[in-house]
């Protein structure tokens, strides 16, 4: 069995524990969004927030901050060491609006080489190694040619490195188009997560994705501008009733200052402290909860040697 790559080195999949598979610790999107809430750069705040997550029972964070979102891999490693939390770093490219200008000048082969380097040697100028490809973004209405090129490169990099891929699929059924594009590119669908499905409140769509062979992430938990957490909980209960418990992942996608406790938000611990009680109130067992928060992330990151 292959180990999982964290920013502090490799660990066994069983060491992941309670895992949030889609979060952000450091990024800076101000130049594109002109919104100061999209700057996560304060290491002291990050330490405080992650310590609370650990105190509430969390163990692992998957930071899906990709090229163009101005992450800080070395600071991510420093904070992980200080706090004692597992952090898996992501590599890849978000949707086209956020592509770095230099990406257009690269061939697909060069993109593959960049991703493989991040996943095997470390991000440029560092020895911090990524452990997941994601979040890979597309527009919510259609996949652009530039985004399709990234998808093909990610599938090729996955074949070389054997890591999961995770996507950004907001508001529409674009996740099915993403899943088909990755399938056509030769990606391992058993290691492909379609993200943000809970921003499209359509359980039949979520089931279609699962039946196609991919994972689904309810990873906007706490973001009430998409739908209420009560609606999310009802949908998860419905999906589990249909037999799909073992394909569901839970996370909050913290990406704004206002989502953090330090700025009045709910923090990385919201799944534990705010959302799981809603699932328990609806009759889900501890086994159901452990499946989605511990067992499923472990299985997603488990690859044969």
Q: Your description of this structure?
A:
By secondary structure, the chain is α/β, with parallel strands linked by helices. The chain has one domain: Metal-dependent hydrolases (TIM Barrel, Alpha-Beta Barrel). The chain has 10 helices and 12 strands. It has helices spanning 30-33, 43-55, 73-83, 108-120, 145-161, 174-184, 203-212, 229-241, 270-281, 286-300, and strands at 4-6, 9-11, 19-23, 27-28, 39-40, 60-63, 86-91, 132-137, 165-168, 192-194, 215-218, 248-250. The strands form 3 sheets. Strands 3-6-7-8-9-10-11-12 form an 8-stranded parallel sheet. Strands 1-2 form a two-stranded antiparallel ribbon. A two-stranded antiparallel ribbon has the order 4-5. β8 (132-137), α5 (145-161) and β9 (165-168) form a beta-alpha-beta unit. α2 (43-55) packs across α3 and α5 crosses α6. The longest helix is centred in the middle third of the chain and has 17 residues, at 145-161. The model has no long low-confidence stretch (mean pLDDT 98).
